[in-house]
Amino acid sequence: MEIKISKDAIEYIEQNGKEAYVFLGNVGGCCGGSVPMPYIYIGKPKELSKYQMHKIENIIIYTSKNIENNREINVYLSKLLWLKHINVDIK
After folding, report:
1. Helix (H) or strand (E) run with residue 2 in it
2. Domain map of the chain by residue range?
3. Residue 29: per-residue pLDDT
4. Cα–Cα distance measured from residue 73 to residue 36, given in angstroms and rounded to the nearest whole number
5. What are phi and psi of 24, to 5 degrees?
6. 6: closest CA among 82, 73, 91, 81?
7. Which backbone phi and psi does 49 adopt, to 5 degrees?
8. Distance between CA atoms of 40 and 29, rounded to whole angstroms?
């Protein structure tokens, strides 16, 4: 698994507790189907046994064990005026 994190995302995570976790959740549709959607949250996951820990620079990223190892995780920060939001893509 390759994890790429932008410098501004690293700074944002450092300023907000130095830990974040990534997992695949499901987004349901109106016709009964669901699609896996990546999410990232600042903090430590409640069930650590379901996550792998990755130390990157001064931060720790936990990735869900249900994310395939051949995937690439991209963490970046989006900004709109003074608002900042951490985002993740999984390829």
Report:
1. strand 2-5
2. 2-26+36-90
3. 67
4. 14
5. -100, 120
6. 73
7. -65, -15
8. 21
Q: Residue 9: which H helix or E strand, with range?
A: helix 7-15
Q: Is 30 left (phi over 0), alpha (psi -120 to 50) or beta?
A: alpha
- What is the spatial order of strands in the sheet that 51-56 belongs to? 34-42, 19-28, 59-64, 51-56
Matching residue, tokens 């944002």: 12
Per-residue pLDDT tens digits for 6-65: 999 999 999 999 999 999 987 776 776 777 899 999 999 999 999 999 999 999 999 999
Superfamily of domain 2-26+36-90: HesB-like domain (2.60.300.12)
pLDDT at 90: 94
E-assigned strand segments in 9-91 = 19-28, 34-42, 51-56, 59-64, 72-80, 83-90
Judge whether 36 and 26 are in contact, CB under 8 Å. Answer: yes
